[in-house]
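#random but structural
TW: two for the price of one
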Amino acid sequence: MSQNDQVIRLPIPTEGPLEPPAEWERLRGQCPVATVELPSGDTGKLLTRYDDVRNLLADPRFARPTTEDNSARVAPEGAGGSAATGDYELAIPDNGEPHLRWRRQVGKYFTAKRMRALRTGMTETAENLIDAMVDHGQPADLKAALGFPLPVYVICDLLGAPAEDRERFSYWSDAFLNVTRFTKDETRAAHAEFIQYMTDLIAAKRAEPGEDLLSMLIKESEAEGEGMTDAELLSTGMGLLVAGHETTANMIGKMIAMLLTDRSRWERLLADPTLIRTAVDEALRYDANLGTFGIRRYLTEDTDINGETLPSGTTVFCALSSANRDEDTFTNPDEMDLTRSPNPHLTFGAGPHACLGQSLARTELQVVLETLVHKLPTLTLAVPTDELQRVEGLLVGGLREVPVRW
């Protein structure tokens, strides 16, 4: 069997919680379109080079797999949450003009200008959470004290959802994104509860509109007659609630761990806080734990990638973290350079399905760094880096805890 015929089992193991798999460099150099086997036993193709990943993600013909196609299953017997099985039951259109219309309607609420207007409130919330963490004593789990609650408060405020329901959101989100933790029945029950909750929330917004995003979308739909359907509103609310806190909560923990594992990085931010903006994007690029399987695309027609024709019906896994380490795109890619600019990383995807909330995520990450540098300059990891543990089974990469002292 030649190198190009080898089957790589996903997920690829790593030597440490913050380290990339050594296999990525070999794959980029020798087998950029690799055959992979999933925990389900199904197979697909894995892209590891920057240009290949970007080109496929930017191709408007292809979208995420669903249960209606014959795509490779991630989990055995279709187990796992909706994001693993493709059984979304969401009404958000995936392709074409309907998808672009939906992005225009929602995207105008996530512009950089709007996010700047939210920064003061985010900073106040972050300061309060850090003060509470300090009062509780050290060591503390930064992820639990700050990384998880801050994005929940922000997205709840944005959507007009009660922040006191955050533990329920966390459970539903985990059930949506986890591959191994829940049974099929538990996943279905959590999904049904989530749908009912969001249905009730939308009904409450119709009865008493506020200034939140859901209320604004409802008003537009009623005024224009061509706005979102009830099903689209439901799917939008659920999708934003999951995406708006789970990914950012995990990224906050990973970013701080990356900066503290090499103390010189943290010291550099203390000496020059103007580096925070570029440091955030570099953390997003440098993160070797973006997700268990990367972003998936289902090919609906034969497609040429890097000189290889992949047939229609192929499920392709785009390794964003590997693409972000591609030496053909980034100088010294295995170095965390806090001044790196430009930084065209693919952490938020590319093309018609690029993350709508990237301005929100960047703003939250910047606020976290600004506030921590100001309030806790002596912050350090409370455990050796190799004792940090990755979250297992979650499609979105993260660390279980980030123990810190100050």
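TW: number two ↓
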Amino acid sequence: MNKIIVKFLLLVSPFLFTNCIDPVEPEFEFKEGLVFIEGIATTVKGGSYVIINKSVNEFGINKTKFENGAYVSFVNSLTGQVVELVELEGAYVPSIEFMANVGEQWEIDVVLEDGRQYRSQPETVLESVPISNIKATYNPELQYNDGTGSFEPGHAISISFNDPVNEENYYYWTFKSYENLLVCQVCFDGIFRDGLCGPTSISTPDYFNYTCDTDCWKVRYPESISLFDDKFSNGKTTTDLIVANVPLYTKENIVVEIQQLSLTPDAFDYYKVLKDLVDNNSGFNAPPPAALIGNIYNPNDPDDFVFGRFTAAATSSTDIFIERGNIPENSLETQMPLSIEPTFMSPYPPPATIEAPCNEGRFRTAIQPEAWIN
């Protein structure tokens, strides 16, 4: 999603719209201060978030940057319940216990540090469609990398599900992957004390690795969009549909948790535009469609606009454990050689340590995934 945001905001200039869903077609021109808000509220714990980016020019380079210090909340449109989100590692997230429920209506309220306010239209949570089966298939040429000019190995994740009869259904898939994390802290030109890396008067190697003090898992998220509608398969069983590519970043065993979101037609149209922009390079050379404006608006300024969308969606999930230790192809990430601080006869200030905490966050967890096999 970050790649989409960066490319899109570098191309688009501001334009006026009569209301939040009927914008005038934009023109190409970069402008600082453009806002992109992407928010999802789901019916599974830990699946909801809001990401806010703003276009900036730093040292002559046009890019987007995460917007810190915003007030963000989910609002139940029917009951008035307000769920405040907290800033965490490049996103705003609700309590881990938060779950939307089928039939509820949710919207978001965002106030930036500069006082600008944005709201979304209400979204109704539809019924979820359960996943009946999941499968992982290894492919040494899973996907082509334009940057390296080569194919990358990894696993294609496919699922099966029974589409409901006599109703239109729109699906969006995302996932989280969990792999063992050995090193929880790296200190360059220093040592780890009191939860921080700091310098010391005694010469040190280029870096020290500090292993995790408990079982720990690295969490990754997808960089692509997977969508499907039942226009030609209404009421039928969909079998072995590939919904995610998981590159071989490391050879650590991995759990992949697939989340299947049931979307409204408007939400599906919006995400399809984003997918088309990524899948077709020519899409960045033509005026972006109006659908990219989504359902978020400034209630205090009808001439202001914001890119992105808030979506509330029922979600079904399933997971799979994949062993990767015997794969012959090289992993994509280069592993740093371990450099462990000595604890016996250490020349460094006490207390000598070789471990660091597995701090809970969006990209790291000490909570063992349900499908994990030791």
